[in-house]
Each structure stands twice: as structure tokens, then as C-alpha cells.
Amino acid sequence: MLYNLLVSFADDVSIFNVFRYLTFRSGAAVMTALIISFVLGPRIIAWLKAKQGEGQPIREDGPASHLLTKQGTPTMGGVLILLSIVSSTLLWADLANGFVWAVLAVTCGFGLVGFADDYLKLTRRSVKGLPGRIKLTAQIVIGTGVTLWIWYLTPEGLATHLAVPFLKDLLIDLGWFFVPFAVLVMVGSSNAVNLTDGLDGLAIVPVMIAAGCFALIAYLVGNTVFANYLQLHYVAGSGELAVFCGALVGASLGFLWFNAPPAMVFMGDTGSLSCGGALGGIAVVTKHELVLAIVGGLFVLETVSVIVQVVSFKLTGRRVFRMAPLHHHFEQKGWAEPTIVIRFWIIASILALAGLATLKLR
Q: Where do the structural domains in the chain lie, given as residue ranges?
């Protein structure tokens, strides 16, 4: 909004010239989202506690310690994340850019699905919220609409193509298969973050790390000079998503203040589904869908652990892990929660660096 209002005066008032710089507006988006989180956080948490009473229902088949340590903690903290992201993005991004609105749509759309799921869990006092089929169908419908929107906005000759990391000249034209592929990226990323969100602070830091990586990727892909130098596929207008990524980084950092062990609030499906969907949407716009699997490798590992556990139990009657997702396996082995969380953060950082290396190794 500020960009659209003030950049036209930049030639007459030199100070307004800073709004032309993505780096300035991305940094401002980080700080704005962080401040919003700090200001609204205590109020929203107090309101959630007053409304929820006993807090988030705890799985009885989960780690036994959670029945004691997690009891009474409110959920739906994703509302704070969404408010921070949306407010900061609307304030600092170019609102004439369609990619910004497309990513906001998938973020808020998945957030609403998560909100409905959290609401039903709380009102029923059960760990069962929206039926899985309804939740998945809603995500697919939203993802399909956003994918078609992104397709319309992306330059012809690139819209339905898949870029392969490390191979600078290889573009695979998926044709109409691009639609289900992009939907899979968004829905898969969303649910992968949701599976990872099982310990205090575990999911939000990898989300923040991935958002920081994609802020750089969006900036480079949306800049003709840098894209040509690094031999990336230039996507006109995608650079504006660096501002959105900045808002996501700031919102994540602000939420971590309240979600760090011991958590004062959980993000719930409201936060996990929306954050994962946002990362998936950005990856689709920037043509770095496969890189997301590397940068967000921790989410992939958590998801694979669940798939392996289910398949193994159905086929052989045996479990590979003591409990899935993977972080619960280490809890059952006796690792302290902060140890698991910090070590998983380290893994997420290493994988993010590996993902960024694909920008140069071509």
C-alpha cells in the first residue's frame, strides 16, 4: 500500500525513493510483522485462553508426557501469524502485483481450513476436527484456483514448465499436468508443516528459515540481471514475493517469542497449514518447486517417517519407528524436548544451505 501511494512522489520527494527498493521494503516487512506480533501477541493469547478454557485437546496415543506438559495451552496461535503476515504484506508490497495476491490467497485459504479444523477440535473437545477428506478436498480446490491464477500471471513459455536444480537449460513442459503437480506442492507442503508441528517451536523456525531462503530466491528470480548471471529462469514480477517472505520471517520470529519452550500458545492447524501453503505457493511462482523439497527437507523427513510407519505396519504389522512423526520417535527414545527441537533446527539450517547451493551449482 505504501509503495502504491508514495512511489509516484519519489521524483519530487527524494526520501520516498527508498520505496522503490525491494530490499528496503522486505526488511521493513520483517520488522513490521515482528512488531505486530509483539504488540498483539499477549492480547490474542489472553483472548484464546479465555475462550478455550482447557486449551488444545491432547492426543491420548501421543507421548505420555504431553498429557502433563501441554495440557491447558491454547491453540489457534496461527491467527497471530496470519494477522502479522497479511498486515505487513499489504503495507509494504506492490498491491498491483498479482503474484502477491495469489500467495496471500493460498495462505489465507489454507488458514481458514486450519481454523475450521481447530475450531471443531475445541468445541468437540476432541483431537478429531474436520474429516480428512473434507480438509483435503478444500485444500485441493483452493490450490487448483491459485494454480490457475499463477499460470495466468506467469510469462508464456514458462508457466507450465518445471525447472530442474543443477541443470540450467532443462525445462520440462508438464502441460496440463502442471495443475495437479502445483496443487501437490502446495497441499503437500501445507500438510508436511502440519505433521512437523508437534513440539514447542519445532515447526516455526524451519518455516522461518525456508521463508528467508525463498526471499532470496524470489529476489534473484525476479531480477533480470541476477537471474541471467546465475542462469536462473527469470519470472517477471516474482521479486515482489521477497516482501511477502519478509513478512513471513517477521511473523515467524514474533510467534517464536510465544511458542518457544515452554510454549504459551500453539499455532494449531490455522498456522501450520497456512505457512506450509505459503511456502508451496512461493515455490510454484518462482519455479523452484524441487528446491523446496531440499530447503524444506525437514518437513519431507517428518512426512516420510509417517508414510513409512503406516505402510510398514499395514504390510508387516511392525513399526519402523517407536512413534511417528519422527520427532516423537526421539521423544520415546528419551531425548529431551529442547534437544530434539534444537537439533532439528540445525538439520533444517543445513538443508536450507544445501537448497541455496543449487542457485550457483549449475
A: 23-357
